[in-house]
Known about the structure:
The protein is an alpha+beta fold. The protein is globular, with a radius of gyration of 28 Å.
Amino acid sequence: MTNEAATATTAAEAAPAPEPIPHGLGVSLPAADARAKTEGTFPYAADLWAEGLLWAAVLRSPHAHARVVSIDTTHARDMPGVRAVITHEDVPGTARHGRGTADRPVFASEVVRHHGEPIAAVAADHPDTARMAAAAVIVEYEVLDPVTDPEQAFEAEPLHPDGNLIRHIPLRHGDPDAAGEVVVEGLYRIGRQDPAPIGAEAGLAVPRPDGGVELYLASTDPHTDRDTAAACFGLETERVKIVVTGVPGSTADREDQGFQLPLGLLALKTGCPVKLTATREESFLGHVHRHPTLLRYRHHADADGRLVKVEAQILLDAGAYADTSGEALAAAVGFACGPYVVPNAFIEGWAVRTNNPPSGHVRGEGAMQVCAAYEAQMDKLAKRLGVDPADLRLRNALATGDVLPTGQTVTCPAPVAELLQAVREFPLPPLPKDTPEDEWLLPGGPEGAGEPGAVRRGVGYGLGMVHMLGAEGADEVSTATVKVHDGVATVLCAAVETGQGFTTLARQIVQETLGIDEVHVAPVDTDQPPAGPGSRGRHTWVSGGAVERAAKMVRTQLLQPLAHKFGMSTELLQITDGKITSYDGVLSTTVAEAMDGKELWATAQCRPHPTEPLDGAGQGDAFVGMAFCAIRAVVDVDIELGSVRVVELALAQDVGRVLNPAQLVARIEGAVTQGVGIALTENLRTARGLVRHPDLTGYCLPTALDTPDIRIVKLVEERDVVAPFGAKAVSAVPVVTSPAAIASAVRSATGRPVNRLPIRPQAAVVTTQQQ
Length: 771
């Protein structure tokens, strides 16, 4: 043996054994699909293919409001390569659909109610042919005046057979005659944010031999979508199947049902697989957006700054159809006073139809809009009283055991004061130096037009809250099955992975409970029992809870024979790192040996405690649980140009329990960045109901250069005893809170009221007279 070989052998023998890969709850287990997404092999819907594939295109209305006089499809049908053209006359089943309220037609027939509403759909042998055929459908319109101001909707002619008013909630809490020594008022407007998914909507429909159809979609609520599709197609639900493909990001209801239904109808009509990939313009026009909102507030406080009464009027613009606007209004009214103790509250909330683009579920809906308003009111109150804005918030902070204006007692952990104190005490970032090397620090970015002497720094605060799961009596339930065979565990649950990390969490739960390293999560389709939509932290709580219960049932099946053999209960046995041991050390074996080739499985459900609808006075235990967040924003504002740069956002949040640290941080950072967009750039602009720039050039998403330093100062792990694992949803509340904190910081820098989001440059300009 040579000296070199001897040295190498010695080094190899001396090398320590590789560290075991961490698993279970509380560790940063990497996502199973991370490699596929990084390498570009992840199966998104836009990548799907089938033999004999046809391509679909949809004709959409160019008007916001019009009467449909006639539809002529003759020219489109006669084009070479066209296999089918369908309109409202070709819908065999239910002609209406909708997430919350089924009031939206599959195809417009008599009236067009918003820009981009579907009129007809085409299937052809080439995508260009399909698009040309859709354009060849001749529609004669009688253009009508659109109703685009939600305040006018109350007096306007009905835009829909169900009327213009979708829901009205009058909240009454406390003494209407109560009054404070100090009163501040404000009028606030929130713009229309688009969820702007990374990938536009796409799908594939494949006819089945039994006359049914399979839809391959990036659905986030497959069972609801299946039921809607089956009703539209005039089929039994068992003849319609939805297979969930890779979801390219989701911060809202990912798939527009009005996109799915024409796809399936064309497949059934032609007997061929049909694929539809939306353009970015179609995506903007078709799916729902955040509700534009008008808010009027009046806050009463005593001389010490303690809140006495809050009065508010909240008007949500639902667009043409109801969708989930009633749910959003309940959140807006229920949280209209924020995470503060308010003994008297009188809130009026309305959601109305207009001819604007449709609104619906977007992360933090309802709560985000009111947070921007009530935090602006707190800044006004602090200024009027001459007290520090953070001190004022601390004096009024909500805590566990306090009562919301809905009459519901806060029973979950609510460490609001602790969160605010944490961000307040965190060191402020250093001031930029007035040197050419640091010009990139100016608002406007590299080579910006601003001058250092015009830059003012501001510090502001935001406190936000959201509810988790559905509300007002929603039946929240999920089902999961866990199977174990040959040392491998498989989880079957129809909870869709939308980027929130459910598949990773499910693997961690099974690893923790059964001590099995290799855990697979099966693809989702509607042959599995339903798990509900992927929103408001549902799958962490409800679906994660179902997986945990099923895994514990399998654990009992695994340990019961051993416990019986040794004359002890299963509670005296534990599973750690793949080994089963007893409390006294008498029993020690591996999970694989205990399995002995057997296949174990169990199915379980998780259903949280019930809630109730708000009554006629806006009272009731409407929410299952709540999450809270505090953010301190630091901004630099060029007071001559009105440009704003967010320097830093310091965040503290109550999370219940950290289940996956890396995943949690990523969720918070993504949510905060979305909030930056709401505060500064994102607004889907319309002119008389027509979307002006339905593309990612006209709609300004924040980029990496716009993302500030995000400092997660504190994560409070005070477990919610009614939640599985004690964990809370983490991604919605930073979206709700960060725009309010940024607006507060801009007010601090400029002294301007800043009563509109996104913040327009003119709102941040300080004139000589104002200085």
